[in-house]
Structures are given as C-alpha cells and as structure tokens.
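ping. complex inputs:
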Amino acid sequence: MSKSNLTRRGLLKTSAVAGAGVALPTIFTASSAAAYMNEPTGSSVTLGFNVPQSGPYADEGADELRAYELAVEHLNGGGDGGLMNTFSSKELDGNGILGKKVEFVTGDTQTKSDAARASARSMIEKDGAIMITGGSSSGVAVAVQDLCQSAGVIFMAGLTHSNDTTGKDKKANGFRHFFNAYMSGAALAPVLQSLYGSDRKAYHLTADYTWGWTQEESIVAATEALGWETVNTVLTPLAATDFSSYIAPVMNSGADVLVLNHYGGNMVNSLTNAVQFGLREKEVNGKNFEIVVPLYSRLMARGAGENVKGILGSTNWHWSLQDEGSKQFVKSFGEKYGFPPSQAAQTCYAQTLLYADACQRAGTFNPCGVAEALEDFEFDGLGNGPTLYRAADHQCFKDVLVVRGKENPTSEFDLLEVVEVTPAAQVTYEPDHPMFAGGNLGSCNPGS
Amino acid sequence: MDAIILQILNGLDKGSAYALIALGLTLIFGTLGVVNFAHGALFMIGAFCAVTLSRILNLSFEIVDESRTDFLGNPLKFKTTYIETWLGPEMGGTIIEWAVPLAILFSIPIMIAIGFIMERGLIKHFYKRPHADQILVTFGLAIVLQEIIKYFYGANPIPTPAPSALTGSLDFGELLGFQANAVIYPYWRLVYFVFAALIIGGVFAFLQFTTFGMVVRAGMADRETVGLLGINIDRRFTIMFGIAAAVAGLAGVMYAPINSPNYHMGMDFLVLSFVVVVVGGMGSLPGAVLAGFLLGILESFASMNEVKSIFPGIDQIVIYLVAIIILLTRPRGLMGRKGVMED
Amino acid sequence: MGILEVKNVNKRFGGLQALGDVNLSVAENSCHAIIGPNGAGKSTLLNVLVGKLIPDTGSVMFDGQSVLGRKPYEINQMGISRVFQTPEIFGDLSVLENMMIPIFAKRDGSFRMHAIERSDQEKEVVEKAESLLEDLNMVDKRHFHSASMSRGDKRRLEIGMCLAQSPRLLLLDEPTAGMARADTNNTIDLLKQIKDERDITIAIIEHDMHVVFSLAERITVLAQGTPLVEDTPEKIKGHPKVREAYLGEAA
Amino acid sequence: MFGLDKKDTSLLIIVAALTMLAPFLLNPFPAESAMAQFNAGYPDLMQRFVIFGIFAIGFNILFGLTGYLSFGHAAFLGVGSYSAVWMFKLLSMNVVPAILLSVVVAGVFALLIGFVSLRRSGIYFSILTLAFAQMSFNLAYSVLTPITNGETGLQLTLNDPRVLGVSSTADGSIPVTNLFGAEMRATYELALGPWNFQFNTGYYLSAILMLLSFYLAIRIFRSPFGMMLRAVKSNQTRMNYTGLNSRPYALAAFVISGMYAGLAGGLMASMDPLAGAERMQWTASGEVVLMTILGGAGTLIGPVLGAGFIKYFENIFSKINESILHKWFAFMPDGLEDTLIALVYPFIGKGWHLTLGILFMLVVIFLPGGLVEGGQRIGRLFRRKKSDEKSDKSSQSTPAE
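pong. complex structure:
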C-alpha cells in the first residue's frame, strides 16, 4: 500500500469509508431521539449521489459522478480547492462540512423513476445519506424530489430541464440549479429573431412525455411572441429510433424552421435524420431552412457528430466560458480527468458546493435550516455569473447560454460555441407564471 | 398523394431493417428451432463493426501545434491519421470516409465467426431444451454482449457518417412531377433499401438454387428425415447460424449512418423483430420479409398527423395492435406453414 | 337403433371427397370395427365423430343427440372417450395423477375451481384410481413419471384413463399401431377383458387384421370415403369386394 | 398443519421463519465493517424482496403450472400500482382499500387480456401478452398521462381531494400511507453492539401478505385445480378428450397470477406511493420471467429465491463503486491492488448488468432446474455422503416442491 496520502488513490481510500454507512441512521420514524433525518453523529457526513449508471444516459451519469467526486475532494481540502477559490461565499474551509468529513455513496437511477427512488431510499435507509443529488432526466428528478420530501432529506437536483421540477411538482426539500424549458425559450427567442428574422414558420417535433410537452409549450410561446407562426406540433413516441416518418412531411408543410424538442438518444437520432433528409440545404419561403435544438448537451452533440454544425440551442453552462469560476472549474476538472467537464458535471459540482455552503452558513445539516440558508441566497463565482436561488420555487436564476454547433471543432469536446449569454433578467419569470402554476412547495420536512 | 408516397418510402426503409433482422431470426428458428433473444445484439455488433473499422482507419499520431492552445492552455495536440500519411490526404481521406461501406467486407468474417462460436459454444446445447430456457440463456448472452460493447465504447451514441458522396437527398417529387421538395429522400436510405433487397434476394437464391440450400430447406421441413438420410445436418445448421448472424450484422453495419450506433440499439429492435417474425409466421422466410415491410409501412402511416389526429397515440401502438389482430385472425401468421408452432 | 348413428355424412377437402355418403350404425354394447386401406377416410370419419371436424352434410347422433358442432370436451362429457394412435397421456404427471384426472372430470364436469381442497385427500377419487390401476396391473407403478414408461404401458394407461370415465362409447384409433407383438397381444387381451366385463360400446379403427378379427363383432369396410360393405367378421373375410379392395391389396 | 402435508408444512414454516427474521439474517455484517456493503437488511430492499416474491409466486402459478409464458405480466403490476395510488389520492391513506382495489382491478384487466390472449398458445400467446403490455406501457407514458402522470409516475400531491382524510397534514406535508394508523414507513431500530437491525412496519405487512400468498400457492399447487393446470401444460389434447375444457383453467390461472401481480403492485405503491410507467415495460415483464426460471419454474420456493437473487444484485452490486473497491483491497500491495480492481471493476457498480447476464447464462447452462435444482444437488450430495448404501429412488416422480 502506498505511503503517500496525497495520491489520488489515497484520497479515494479515505473518502471510501462512506460505503460502510454511518452510525445509527434513524429512518422514516418519529421514534428516534435524533433532531432530524439521518443526523450525522460521528465525524463524517454522507451524501448520496444518485446518477444513471446503466441505460442510455450512463455516460452523462459518469460525468456527473466525476464532478461529485471532485467536489468531495475539494470539500475535504484535497486538490486545488476548485471553485471554493472563486465562490463568493467564503464559509467553506476545506475541512469538510461543519467540520465533518464528507463521504459519499453512489446509486444507479437507470433513468427510471422507480429504480431511482429505490436507490435513493437505499442510500437514505441503509447508508444514512443526509442529502441526495444527481439524475439526468426530469421524470427521475421529480420522482426523487418527492421521495426526499417525504423522507426528510434535501434533494439537490442534477440535470432536469422540465418546468415542472420547480413548477407544479416543486417541493420544499428540493432545489434546482439547472435551467429550465421556459428559460431556454426566453433565451433563444431574441437570438432566433436576430439570426433568422421575425417572419418564420416553425414545425415542432416533440418527445411524447412531460418534459417534451413543457419544452414545446415554452418554445412555442417564446417564438410566437416574436411573430413566428407555429405550423404544426407533432408528438413522437419515446421509443422511436427512426424519425424519418416524422421528418419527411416537414418539407411539405411550408415550415422553414424545425424545432426538435428531444433529448438524449431521441435528439441524436432526430437531428441525424433531419440532416440526412437534407433539410439544412433546402430553401423554403425564400429562406434557408433552419433546425433548432432548444436543449443541448455536449454528450448529445458528440452523438450527433457532424450534424450539429451550425445548429442553435441553449445550455446551462459551457467550458469555453471565460469567467474566473468557469476557468477554475475547467482547470480542476481537466487536470484530474484529462478532458473538459460537461454542463451536467458543472451543475452537479455547483449543487454539491451550494449544499455544503448552506449547511456551513446554517450551522446545521437539518434540512429546514439548510433550506432556509439556500432560499434567496445570492452568489457568484460558480461559473454562471451572479445567481439567485429563489425562495418561492427553489429555482436558480442565472445567465443562460445560447450555443451553436461549431463548424471546425478542434477536439471531440470542442463541439459548441457560445453565441450569446442571455442575462438572468431576461429569463426570469414570476413564480406564478402559468407554465409553473399549480404546484405548492409545502413546508420543509426534517424527517423526524 | 405525395405524403403517401413519402410514407411508403419511409415504410420500405424501416421495413428493410425489420425484414433483415427478422430474416435471420426466423432462419434460426426454422432451422434450429431456437428462439434467439441475442439476435438484436448481433445487429448491434454489426453496427459496431462499422464503428470499429472507422476507428481503426482513424488511428492517428499526435503533432503538437505550438501556435494554438487547448482548453487547459497547453499547446494544442493535432492528430493526423496514419492512413492519410501513408496514402496521401486525398486517397487516405476517401478511405476513411468510405469506412461504412468498407465495413461490409470487414464485418462478414467477424459476424460469421461470432455466429459459429455462439452456435457451437452455446446454442448447440439448447436444441432440446424448452423455449423458456433458450430465451433465458440468449437473453443473458444479449446482456453480456451489450455490456461488453458498453464497456469499450461507452453508452453514448457514436456518429458514423456515410460517405459524403452518398449524403444529401434525392428529390423524388420532381421526378414524379410533384412540386419541388414534396418528396425528398436521403440517398443513404435508398442505398439501404437496395442493399437490403440484395441481401434478401441473395439469401433466397442461396436457399433455392444451391444443394446446400435445398438440404437446409428440407431440414426446416423435417429435421429427422434429413438426418436419417445420412446428411450431416448439424454442420449445415451451424453454417446457417453463421449466415443469419452475418445478415443481422450487415443490417447493422449499413444502419450505422442512419442512426448513430449505441450499445442498446439491439434491444430496441429485438421486441419489434419478434413481432415481425410472428406476424410473418414462425419459420417462414418470405413471411418475415413481407411482415417486415408491412409493419414498416403501417408504422409510417400511423405517424402521419392526419392519422394521429383521429387516433391519438396510434403510432405508439400500431405494431402491437396489428400483431394482435393478425394473431387472432390468422394464428400461423401471414405466411406460416400450417402446424408450425400453431398449437 | 344404434347408440351411434351416422347418416349421409359428406366431407370434402378442396377437390378431394374424403367422405361420401357415409352411413353407419353402431349397436349398443357391441364392438364395431371400421377398416379400410390407407386414405379410405377412416381418420376423417373418426375426427367427425369426436367433433374435431364438422361434415359438409349429414348428421351424427349419439344416443339420440347430435354431436355435430360440439367441442371435443363436450362430446366426451356425453360419454364418448377416445384412445389415440400414439398414446396421449399427461407425460409430466405421475401415473396415479393421470388416472385421477378423468375421475375428476367425470365427477366435476368440464371446469371447476376446486383450488383449495387437497387432491391427495380426495379419498374417493384416489381409491377409485388405485382400484383401476389394480385392474390394469399397474398399481406398483402409480408413482412413476408417466412419460418414462414403455409404449405398451402408456397405451394401457390411456385405455385405463378412458375407462375411468365409464364411457358409453370407446373410440379406438389404431390402438396397436407401432407396437411390438407382445404389447399388441396384451392390448388385445385387455380390450377383450373390458368388452366382457363392462357394459360398453367399442368402435375401433384398425389396420391390423389380427386385432380386428380378434375383437370385432361387426365390421364396416371403408374405401375411398364410402362404406363398401358392413357385416360380421366371418362374412367380411370371404367377401369378394373386400378382398379386392382391401385384403387383396394387403396380400 | 394448515391442511398441508408434512413436507409442505415444514417448507411454509421455514419460509415464515426466514421472512420474519429477515432483518437479522440480511444484516449479518456489523454496520461499520467493510462487508456492510453486502447487508441487505434495510426496509426498501427487504420490502422489494417480498413484494417481488409475491409477483414471482403468482407468475409461477401461470407459467410453472400451465406452461403459458406470459411476457406481459408487468402490466398487471403497473395497473395495480396505479389503482392503489389513485385510491390514496381520492379515498384514504389506509392501505387496505388501496390493496383491495389494486387486486380487483388487476384481476379484471387480466381477465380481459387473458380472455383474448389465451385463444393462442405457445410463442403466439407470449407475443400477444407482450403486445398488450407494451401497448399499456406506451399509452401510460404518453397519451394516458392525465391518468398515469406519464414519465414522472403517478404521485401524491398536497391538493389531492382525499375523501376520508386530509389533503395535507397540519405541518403542510403529504400524509403517509398507513394501516389503521400504523405508518408503513415507521422503522424501529435495534442496535446490538456493532450490529444495527431495522424493523419496518411496511416490511412486516408485505411479509405477512407474502406468506399468505405463498400458503395459497401451496394450496393451489396441491389441489385438483392445480393438477388440472399441470395437465394443461402436459397435454391439452388429452385434456380436451377427457371432457375438460382447458381454456377456463388456463384463464383462471392467468387471472389468479394477474391478481398476485396486482397485489404486488398495490403493495409497492403502499410502501412508496408512486406508480411509474416503467413498471409496465416489457423488460419488467422479462424480469419476472427471469426470476421464475432462475429460481426454478414450477417449484414452490424457486420464484421467491429468484426474485431475491435479482433484486439483491440490482440494489447491492450497483452501489459498489470504485472507491469501495479501493477500500476492500487496500491491504494489498499497490500493484496487485490495482490489478485486482481493474479485474473486478467491470463487474460491479455500473457493470452490474454484466454480472447478472453472466449469472443467468451460468444458471441456465449448469442448473436447468434453476436455483432450486442447485439446492437439491447440494442436498443430495450431502445425503449421499450420509447414507451411501440406501438405494436411489430417483426413477419415481417427485411431486413439485
């Protein structure tokens, strides 16, 4: 065994005690003397990282996990300290959280709400996790958020873009750093107008499930406000792999813009198919035919390859940003793993730091205290510019990036270029905006 | 009218993939009596043959370009492929670009070898076992194969483009006298359809006109009798399994540019191809082909807005609905022989 | 008036006249054999009798009731049991269980959800099954896996299962086909014993003349789907038409 | 005892003892030890063991006895879950009406699908059930979202119009599922030295229902009805010519197993009030098939073993990550440690599917009768050593155990 404790493995080893569980987790019960769910009594605190490790989003999950491990390393004083150097709040000191060493357990969501809840429950019940974070789809995020609410732990959402997560399904114990479909629409609209004009006819292909619908609704509303006409909206089955029969009629419809409200494998295939059909070389109504993918991720861009070139979309964060926070994060992540982080990695890293900082400021791990510390918290230095964690719906408000597929990528990670950084003010909405109405945060649940 | 032509084209194209997979599946069932749940995985491996060849052709060495920097501020490392250095950028570039068609040649020996190993090493021991056991063992194999691919290639889809000469699309509408852009169709999908037709034709010709094929057909009809004639039917069936694997693999190779291959694409097609086989009639080759095209076209029609506005969600269920109706009205499938698995 | 009356039955398969104007009357408590060369329509006729095929025209009456259009299990419940060319038994079940099932079927009808009672505590049924096995000399094999038995034993069991239902008509389809001589003789002895001991009508379709002449009281000769002649075995043996159509061919 | 013969009684007692003592048996390792990773004695997983046990026992009544291989049984589980959650939303948080409704609804659904699907048999029956289940899944995920809440799954909200009960509790949270006041999620902990045991109300309710289901399954197996079901599997021709109508027998088995699935679904929703559409996907149906065959189709205890085996892998192996491996092998020299981790790593954590796939293959290849056969072989080996002289009576048929 190595004697140096500074090697990467040495760190992993010390952080690995997590798997053994902590003393006496007090589960789902009022019978215990603990003040709140899974109150850490020992010298360590356990976080639960619930990411897709199998299924189509496994690579995204792997990137999230890398970010979490990096965050834990930094919180425990390892590495270069990462974003703790640039974070506007200086409470974190590299000595764990509230002096307790940070440990973690991991689980596999399989991108299924059932499996995700099962693995979250096992982390809470078996390993005594005090906070659950991660995920790569809105269905999973909403389901796990609901579980954490009833179990009495904090949920720091990973990648979830549906309006519902902080809209009709918002929960007092749940917090989202990632942006949402409404923000995508609001950020994209002005760019679409300046690049493609106000007289456009849009054709929507939408994945036939909740996230797809909220995205379609948001984009339709934002583009129609510009004066665009929505020619047609077509729902496509989630299980579809070949989108040819949905794309073929587009050319015939008189539309000159195709909006693909798809994510993951659906998006890769529909975009590939659309480009195959030569849509981008066509001229309709005297204008170049354009394709828009409102929600972009680097992994999807990699999957679609050449086809993303010149295609507009929005994203939460991109590693080419030049602010101090982004540069620091790219450096820490890049030096550890050898390639730049994805937006999923950034949001998960930020969520972990935000949680740790909130505990530190609240002086407790009690979910109610942590929630209070996060609510209306304003911060900067995590890569997204000045950000507000709004109390009314637990949604972060920050700048949104409009990006475009790069024409001449220099590496397999250099696929997108930032077209515009839409300021937070422009994507902010009222908490009772109709697209987000119908939910109720309820009150925070400490579990005991 | 143009919309209908378009959906027929789409249907033929989807149908080509269904038909190719179902053809191998029904061949294995017809000759060996084995329900092979790993057949989708063979299709997936075929697609990854294309990915692998393209990776091999893209093997490269690094040149450091001091004038540019990468994301960490270090000098940018430039990659140049060996092929381009050896054969010149033009020749080398063309070869790299034609990776997918070249992968046809590359994949045939690989797929046949995989087929042989599967049959000799595993399936052979399951001829006399119940279908449920066959399903379980081949399902296990399918999981193992796809997890191996995932381990080496990741879960993300890997773009595998067609040669640029074959990208773009053909304006059918103008050929047929409709307005421009009314019926456009990508060249590669046309290539896929023609390719599928050739493979299907080849398999049929092989079974129809060669002595080997005759023995196999006789074996499908009555295995014991052929065995009694002193013909080594087992060896021929092994070869048949290899051919079925190759057909699935080729279907996968050529499918790679249509949708970026990922490790679970086989599972996506598995259930569907079983439905196709059953609708066509277990063990009937023409049935599998017919059902493949039929379901492909029906699926395309069901995805038309005009149809969906009458039956919301019909495109989600049309294949299953058709399967149920056919099985209830014509239990042996469209072209199944009487008495085969009809009980 | 026989227990089984077949009147003017016709059945065509495409261009082939499988049965043409078949008339047949089987007297109660007799043993009636139907013979004929291959393709004479014996199996088609049998399938009509058990409800598997519906004739184009004609009627089939069993004890005054039509069997046409009824399902095999309904016809069985009317009192017709069938023995198959290759023994059809419940191969996965034990011999005793094989014997119990027809007794349950007789007692409870074609369907009953007796899901809570224990089958091995149905004393009456078990006793009856065991006594029948005793008659068949199979009682020592009652826990055998029935699929693992010899063909002769399977045939014995199948006949026993039919008898367990106390049928009024027993249909036998080439009961000794593919059997060794010793098994054939055992089967003939068993059938003779049954005929002598029980009030039962037996209709037998058979190829093997030895079997037919040892059992049958009346014989119908079928050729090309039509009954050629019907008479006692002695008369049939010497009948010129039969010799020409059937025995001549066999010789 | 209980109207069972001696052998079945002892089997039932053993199973009862195992389930009642599960919180101890599944937590053999002290909470702080490295092996604690393999502890399965926490409420969620214990509940899953018994609930999927019920599902598999029910599936085995159809597949093990009649031989009809349904590839759509997950649909009944899903329908059961949806009914239960709706009951929580509309009527009361008490689990009794919810579970009753889920059993009834799943039974009716099974009657409809079974009536149509049982017109065919063999692989055609499998494809028909698969088609029905996939249709249910696809529709539940998309068009039927108003009823199923689609992708997210049907869950409770603070605005549910609960007729017998309150929409939200005094402190503003959603009320919890209970059995006449006993909360399903309530867990009592027992710390014995370094060990830590959890006793969960929901688990014990599920376990008792599982034992009842198991007992009922034994009764069905041993009844004349069970004999008829085995007759369906063995020879339908003989059955029909013995005056038995095989269709209603198969249909009854289908409906009973559908109701078992509904019970499992209702219990799942009672333990954790969410009903996800993925529960109805064909892979979920495939899972119960695998559980049953893996454990031993047609045997009484096999499906329960198979269910436990698969759920254990899914929940325990998927949670082992690289840092845990480093901890395990930390005592080794560096080079060896790295090599070992590189060798083991592909099979754990995100590679748990690979391990499961390999185990499926190994079991089917070497133990055609599933885990039960493995147990019997070990048992026989043991007995043979004990009494070498005693003659083997293996030629006699052994009734299904």
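Residues 29 and 201 of chain C are 4 Å apart (CA to CA).
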